[in-house]
Amino acid sequence: MAVLLLADVNGGQLATDSVAKTLSAVKSLGEVHVLVAGAGAEAAAAEAAKLDGVSKVLLAGATDYSHGMAEATAALIVGLAPGYAHVAAASTAAAKNVLPRVAALLDVMMITDITAVVDADTFERPIYAGNAIQTVKSSDKIKVFTVRTATFGAVAATGAAAVETISGETAAGLSTWVEDKVAASDRPELTSAKIVVSGGRGVGSEADFALIEKLADKLGAAVGASRAAVDSGFAPNDWQVGQTGKVVAPELYVAVGISGAIQHLAGMKDSKIIVAINKDEEAPIFQVADFGLVADLFTAVPELAEKL
Amino acid sequence: MKVLVPVKRVIDYNVKVRVKADGSGVDLANVKMSMNPFDEIAVEEAIRLKEKGAATEIVVVSVGVKQAQETLRTALAMGADRAILVVAAEDVHTDIEPLAVAKIIAKVAAEEQPGLIITGKQAIDNDMNATGQMVAALLGWAQASFASAVEIAGDAAKVTREVDGGLQTIEVKLPAVITADLRLNEPRYASLPNIMKAKKKELAEKTAADYGVDVSPRLTVVKTAEPAGRAAGIKVGSVDELIGKLKDAGVI
Ligand SMILES: Cc1cc2nc3c(=O)[nH]c(=O)nc-3n(C[C@H](O)[C@H](O)[C@H](O)COP(=O)(O)OP(=O)(O)OC[C@H]3O[C@@H](n4cnc5c(N)ncnc54)[C@H](O)[C@@H]3O)c2cc1C
């Protein structure tokens, strides 16, 4: 039996990095069919067809499936699911919206945020904001799960799978899309960046968050934020790193003016090198930092940006 | 419109989690327990809808151990009108899976006929992020997950959702399920007079069997382990030293 992998498509573009990392997470489970859903997703389907480990791309191009609308997309997947032993996706907001709905309709348990595939029924996943790692074995006929991609490498793009156009069930009338407010950015994407620079409450204002952004640009990094920084309006919601934000594991993570609450650590403690800049030498962030600098960020960050 | 809000009793978010030495799970005996923070946000949103005149009655429901009574009392003290406790486990270490919880909530909804269900987007213990979506699925209702703003207009709700690239706005036909994200609101604290009043509010007690739902788990926990720790790092004395270390490590 094969794996059905739901791809994230945003504005007609494949979230290639997340799909490529999910492919490497599931490769021991058998043949993989990637499902690309939504109108205008032909280019995304073609892109998915190139990824290694994909044996077929299913393109469901009806507008009902656009914008990741949960009701219709779940109905589509439920129709396809009997042909699969596993239904998987990267742990994105879109997949976390749709797949639990799919699981309930199939009468199976959802398995969220897996970090390892042990065997066809057994998976590892973090619980309690990553303070414990649980190994669970599913007794369900179809395993529906999302993958925390941060710790997986991406497969290469040397393949040429066939793209098959399909149609399926929809869920007319339940919900309608109104708008997406997505900020365009030239910076690397947070979950795939090699370097991430994050600012916390210590940064103090939206205006001063420019210091963080300047350092990030100097390093070619993505910008992240703590919940406190987002709640205070210093940074947009999609920059939040943590238990309930994005989970990142870059080569280098620089935490500036962030205390290191467990909910924040949950989103970044698998980074290869962690740097903390904080004026409080007792801040818990120093317990996970490889290199800690006890300093006022308003002098240290500009100096660092200057000297790099 | 009646609003149904499921709430979960979980370890308090400030408590340091300890994995049991035998690998069977996390130690929850004699640990401070509280309402799941996202569920507090859900309760608060229901209360605000009632204050605005968009909701008429708020029913809170909890599925779990008997001690979840305290969690329901907290919700009543915040401003919910009545509570239903569905006892589905005896040991505080038993976590009823979202699928079973969703089946029970769907049955409660069939009885109560709410116009809206608001859940927290995830519970901070199992971090599953599934119950709300599953309830919507089982009822055949629309869902709006990860909500940061909710506006009720006639027989529909306009919901702003926190998504990976920013914000998405959708409109869902009521009845629907909304799951609350962090920035939907800031929950109120219950005042002392309201805590006293809450003691007199109705709290019905049921069991999973009353709803004919089998709560046996689909996932067997093979083991629970501590995450790999990080080796202790060092403090650097200056920006120059930091740059030197990062160059040595090959990351810049
Ligand atoms: C259910 C739930 C979910 C949550 N999810 C998340 C999540 O996903 N992500 C997340 O980040 N948090 C999350 N939190 C919040 C978390 O508990 C913390 O409140 C938050 O991470 C704190 O952010 P902070 O470190 O920026 O702020 P603070 O804890 O206030 O720390 C600010 C730091 O800045 C330092 N500082 C101040 N001024 C300066 C200066 N001039 N120079 C240098 N340093 C300075 C201070 O010493 C301090 O250490 C969640 C909480 C709950 C309850």
Automatic annotation (TrEMBL), chain B:
Stated name of the protein: Electron transfer flavoprotein subunit beta
One record GO biological process: carboxylic acid catabolic process
Native organism taxonomy: Bacteria, Pseudomonadati, Pseudomonadota, Alphaproteobacteria, Rhodobacterales
Keyword Glycoprotein: no
Source organism, top-level taxon: Bacteria
Described purpose of this protein according to its UniProt entry: The electron transfer flavoprotein serves as a specific electron acceptor for other dehydrogenases. It transfers the electrons to the main respiratory chain via ETF-ubiquinone oxidoreductase (ETF dehydrogenase).
Pfam assignment, any one: ETF
TM ranges: none
Subunit note: Heterodimer of an alpha and a beta subunit.
Cofactor requirements of the protein: AMP
Electron transfer flavoprotein alpha/beta-subunit N-terminal domain sequence ranges: 23-215
SMART domains listed in its UniProt record: ETF (SM00893)
Protein family membership: Belongs to the ETF beta-subunit/FixA family.
UniProt GO MF annotations: electron transfer activity
Keywords: Electron transport, Transport
